[in-house]
Amino acid sequence: MKTDKIPPTKPRGRPRSFDRDTVLDRAMxxxxxxxxxxxxxxxxxKVMEVTTPSIYSAFGDKEHLFLETIKRYIAGPGSYQAxxxxxxxxxxxxxxxxxxxxxxxxxxxxxxxxxxxxSTINCSAASAYVQQAVTEARRETELxxxxxxxxGIAEGDVPxxxxxxxxxxxxxxxxxxxxxxxxxxxxxxxxxxxxDAALRAWPxx
Length: 205
Fold this sequence. Notes:
- The chain is mainly α.
- The protein is built from ten helices and no strands.
């Protein structure tokens, strides 16, 4: 007897048995701590507690997994930079960025420094695409700060003759350097003193 019912299809492959956000966080911390190129697939498998087929099924290759962790870092531990731009004045925004950067970079519960600065610092030419992606993420962060300073100029809380791009570049460079200092064991007090010194470079009213 004929029927119009469609027979149920069998699911393809085994269902994913891990929480995507949890394993991404684990991979992010490892890349943050060791860098992209020096992190092996074996180390990732151990830390993420997943199998090789699971990684390839969920994320593709190591390169795409890394790019996913960069997005997770920007939306998570690194989100303070974008959030700080909402402060009332440009100087308040930069003050908050430096203060929260200190707290983040020397936090004993996370790897030291900034993942966007450290994770591709020793990459070879073979990892050019990864380097380019991280460099672009850093550029976007600096550009957002530059726009906030330009807004401050337009609103009158930053001197009109301020070079917004140069000032944004100065603070971005300071944060890169602070990230390196964090890996060398700078203390919170030392880092705060450096941040205070950097703030004294802000254009006088």
